Each structure stands twice: as C-alpha cells, then as structure tokens.
User: Fold CENPP protein from Chordeiles acutipennis.
Amino acid sequence: MDNSICQGYEDEIQSLEEEIKLLSEKYEDRQRESTFFSDEEIQMSIKSFQRESQGGSRGCESPSDLTAQLESLETDLSFLMKFTGIQFTSHSKKTLEKTTNRALQKHRLSGNCHSLSFQLEFQLLEMQNKENVSAVITDLSIIMESGESSDVSKFVSSTEEHGNLLKFFRSLSSYAEWHGHRRHTFLHFK
Assistant:
C-alpha cells in the first residue's frame, strides 16, 4: 500500500514537472511572439494611427477612404490586443466641462486581460496652451477580481493614488498571464 501511495505521488510530481515545463515553453513562445513584431512594424502602426487621427479633422471623405481607414484601425487594434492581451469590452465617455482651452471628460472602461476582468473609471482633464495639449488623469477608480491577493489590492490602491494608467496596464498584462498559469497549476493540488 505504501509503495502504491508513494508511486502515485511520484507520478503526480512528474506530471506537474512536465506541465511546468510545457507552461515555461509556452511562456517563452509568447515572449518570442511579442518580440516577433519588429520595431519597424510597431513604428508603422504608430504612424498609421497618427495619420488616422489627423485625417479625422479633414472633413468629409469618400466611403472607400473611410472603409480603408476602418480596416487599418481594426488591424492596429488586433495587433495591440495580441501584443498586450488586453481586450476592452465597453467604453463610455461623458463631457463634464468644455471651454476653448480646457475639457473635462469622465471615462468608464471595462475589459479583460487574459483571465482577469477589470473596470476603470476616471476623469481626463485636457488643457491646451497654444500648440501643446496636456492631459491629466484624476479620480481614478479601479475594480478588479483580485479577492485572493492582497498584493494586487495594494498595487491597485497605489495606481489609483498616482493615476498612472500606463503602469497599470503594463503590470496587469504580466500579472494576468501568470495568474492563469498559477491557477491552472494549483488545480492539480486540490
């Protein structure tokens, strides 16, 4: 009996080691995939986005131009979702105040990153001085399904305090990917 129990544990350990190896290989593949996009492709995507945003102020365009722009934007969006793992499911914007050189908008975003869902609510204050436009994020509120980790709660609180969305999305992408791996691995122990 004891040998069969020990053999069962050894088999389970070997199975977990193989799974860890597979997950490590999968992670390395994703890392290589993210570096698969060359700097040139990233720059082309950024330039395309800038052309699209500048083109919106030109006025009426032909339907074929608009269709081409839409396809280009969809391609850029697909690229960004593959690159970051972040997918937005809803967005709403409400203008609270608007003057000639100042605009205050309230944004609500929800989405998911790998297996974690999130919701953001913040105010964006845009100020224009001659040719420069500056934007400041205020009243940031983040809701995540992070009930099991106090570290995530601390990180979310810190991000809300500093209003740093770039830091939030970068960290969320990395954490969410490994959260899925951890959850899958711990299922073997239950």
